[in-house]
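Chapter summary example.
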Amino acid sequence: MTISVPQTPPGVVVVGSINMDLVVRSTRLPAPGETLIGDSLSEIPGGKGANQAVGAARLGADVSLIGRLGDDGFGDTLRRALGVEGIQLDGVELTRECCSGVAIIGVEDSGQNCITVVPGANGRLTPDDVQRQALAIAQADVLLLQLEVPIQTVLAAIELAKTNDVLTILDPAPAIRDYPPELLSVDVVCPNESEAALLTGIEITTTESALRAAEKLQQLGARQVVITLGDKGAVFRDASGNSGHLEPFSVTTVDTTAAGDAFAAALGIRLAEGGSLQDAGRFACAAGAVAASRKGAQPGMPSRADVNALVRVARTFSGPGEPFYS
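The structure predicted for these 326 residues follows.
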């Protein structure tokens, strides 16, 4: 079975970070105070905002990015890489005498990672920057947000989108314990299990506890919730109180760095195309799984054909036929 999608690509605006990822691969991650010899070092375009923008573009959306770059060599490289993906960059401004954002990422052979982020120009993104792109946000179908830029800037973008009935999706990463209540007043919040635990105070150890956390996030202001659970899939709870578990897709994990970004981008696109939260969550699980099976943040972002290929192999979906997303 083929699920039809609108002939006009969804319009997606991303407000968020743009980083150069310096990726160190090693057999395992070092313990505190330990020095290890790494296997390789790579410079890979990343940042949660840029990752989600690339993810949305590869899945077929018309994408605009609002962010900041520094006046360094990384900034030039990052702008060129985003341009190659066909992303509109009118909202990406230059910050003088400032470095671009950098993430230092350690990845072990199992695919697990640890990340240290230096915000650089990302920390200079202001509500005024967002306001200058008000028309782009107003004309979008979806606004994607994360927390690697200042909170007040994220709040300004949420308010603009809500004023213009634009679907708002927040990936609350990196999670913060003390946040303004209005931060969660979005259409969809999609944390991972550790972020959901920090936001709600509920320890997530089972599907049932994840569903309790999803309900708590709705009580805190989110209209709908999807919580990703790594290799255990995800749980969802929609605006009507319908909830459930989304089975994982089986892949060989290589690098989980941007799996959550691929998930958020796919979730937003499928909702914009008219899918239910459950349907969008399944699509997003497949996109996140493909990303986790590849090296690098933006290089690992899947196309729609990649997602469908995994769905065909996994045959996870129930019912007559397989719901592909062509």
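To summarize the output: The domain at 11-32+39-314 is CATH 3.40.1190.20 (UDP-N-acetylmuramoyl-L-alanine:D-glutamate ligase).
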